[in-house]
Specification:
The protein has about 475 residues and is an alpha/beta fold. The protein is built from 15 helices and 21 strands. A hairpin with a 2-residue loop joins strand 5 and strand 6. Helix 1 (about 20-30) runs parallel beside helix 9 (about 325-340), helix 3 (about 50-70) crosses helix 4 (about 85-95) and helix 3 crosses helix 7 (about 185-195). The chain binds flavin-adenine dinucleotide.
Length: about 475
Amino acid sequence: MSTTGETVFDVIVIGAGPTGENVAERAVKGGLTAAIVESNLVGGECSYAACIPSKALLRSGAALDAARRVDGAKQAICGGVKASAVFARRTYFTDNWNDSGQVEWLKNAKVTLIRGRGRLAGERVVEVDGTRLTARHAVAICTGTDPLIPDIPGLREAAPWTNREATRTDRVPARVAVLGGGPVGCELAQAFRCLGAEEITLVDRGGHLLERFELFVGQMLADKFRELGIAVQTSAKVRRVERKSGRGPVRIWFETPDAAERSIQADEILVATGRVPNTWDIGLETVGLKPGEWVTVDDTCCVQSVAGGWLYAAGDVNHRALLTHMGKYQARVCGDAIAARAKGELKEPPHPWTRFTATADHCAVPQVVFTDPEAAAVGLSETQAREAGIRYRAVEFDLSHISGAKLLADGYQGHAKMIVDEDRQVVIGATLIGQDVAELIHAFTVAIAGEVPLSRLWHAVPSFPTMSEIWLRLLESYGL
Ligand SMILES: Cc1cc2nc3c(=O)[nH]c(=O)nc-3n(C[C@H](O)[C@H](O)[C@H](O)COP(=O)(O)OP(=O)(O)OC[C@H]3O[C@@H](n4cnc5c(N)ncnc54)[C@H](O)[C@@H]3O)c2cc1C
């Protein structure tokens, strides 16, 4: 129960990750009362086991490498990353897994926090450890995801690390086997290498790393990983895992494309093979939905398959874009739509690109992978544009030819690709890889979401000598 004993709220949010917090805050800003139910730490996966600690683990190595690439600065470097200091900095950024700061934030936002496990118990009803709460207007499911542990014989018994253990550890295992070559696997493989792990092997069943990105991204990253001493084994099917009593060395057997069976030994095995929705035990069956499935929503984040328009789902759990910034974007949309509907101000389905629709989910989702080199993409890849039947043109440019990049790092290596919709003459996708490209991606996001015509982008002059000159070069390559 809430500390005030209240059991009726305008809005009840289940899950206080970044998404849930923002749904509740927006609903309150819209004039409603809101309660948020959290079974673990307020702040969710992002704050304590994902974005924040993983980036903190990567940052020190990236800063050191950046200095190593600048003559005159590199001579000042006389050692490597100090793992204990990196772990301490990570712990600072996770507030030592104490959520009092975020609890205070909820209090200031006038959102009532209810600690406990929330379950739907029919229309507009949420049960928290035996207490029944009722929502006047809406319930929002923001329960996020859990790590997916694939069904590989011996894997569960081997007590593998997931992102949760890997981002919380204070220990650098000498040998780490990473299963999964997506963003999480790549970032954590690199983090542990920088922290001093002697042997890292990244095993992926796909043909190349970061498969959802343009092909050149995975190829450049794999080259860099090999240079750093991270072994990359792609197109590998893991057959079994063996670890006696779940402790000590772990052996992983996998099959390579030539059908050969190989095995590696490691001190820890880290599973980064995807996510499953956190919907097994949240009472979905009481409202006619299937437990364990992603919750499908419309662009206002409303669950259309449940009658009455009172149930919403935002963030990772709706499977539209599993990223913190997109979850928070959906949260703003969802909270505003709930408030507007409660006031009778939103009777018709809203148009795209209004504050009540998560339109960007379809065409302008930016993502950064904080490896070295960084990878960043927004909008459609060339494959996606082709599959969507769009008449497009792709232009590419070698980032190492940009003056700003040359000055940033000696021997800079990087690449950029932009996809243009030929009929509408607007940018619909961009992908970059190279040091410090993360900060470049937002300009592409603005161009895509704003549907800025190429003829006008030509007048957005990038400063010299910055990396942003990639814009000029791409537009010139297109023929402007
Ligand atoms: C290693 C890693 C690194 C990542 N790095 C980035 C990054 O750099 N940038 C980025 O944008 N994204 C990143 N992500 C993705 C990001 O973490 C997620 O997109 C984000 O956390 C989703 O937020 P959410 O609020 O939807 O869910 P979550 O953060 O998962 O929060 C869900 C909350 O709901 C609670 N909950 C669940 N069930 C119940 C229940 N029944 N009752 C009460 N509470 C419940 C949970 O305890 C949790 O607090 C990363 C993910 C991983 C794994």
